[in-house]
Amino acid sequence: MLLHELHAREMKARSQVILPVCYDGITIELGYRIDLLVEDKVIVELKAVDTVHPIHVAQLMSYLRLSGKDVGLLINFNVGHLKDGIQRFVL
């Protein structure tokens, strides 16, 4: 639904974007997948958990570093008000 809403607002967004890792001149696919990539600038990781743990933040920060993107959102849908479940991270 979120992807549909972004497209309805004429925003470029892709889901389950494969994030390859480059090491020593070799590109390796390790199974990393970005939940949403918006406008080729913002990585969005989606969760539905009781508590956002440091491992969730580390996942997003790793995706930012590996992709060369600067801005990421970690959205937890398991909250009373959605605004309380949104965290923004900048490298």
Please describe what this structure looks like.
- This protein has about 90 residues and is α+β, with helices and mostly antiparallel strands.
- The chain has one domain: Lambda Exonuclease, Chain A, CATH 3.90.320.10.
- The protein is built from two helices and seven strands.
- It is globular, with a radius of gyration of 14 Å.
- The mean pLDDT is about 95.
Care to give the gist of this entry?
This protein is an alpha+beta fold.
Helix content: 10-25%
β-strand number? 7
Ranges where pLDDT stays below 50 over 5 or more residues in a row are: none
Provide the succession of SSEs. Answer: HEEEEEHEE
Tally of alpha and pi helices:
2
Largest sheet: 5 strands, mixed
Shape: globular
Question: How many domain units?
Answer: 1
Stated plainly, the CATH topology is called Lambda Exonuclease, Chain A
Quote the average pLDDT.
96
Topology:
Layout: H1 2-8, E1 13-18, E2 21-23, E3 26-28, E4 33-38, E5 42-47, H2 54-67, E6 71-76, E7 86-90
Task: Pick out its properties.
about 90 residues, GxxExxY protein
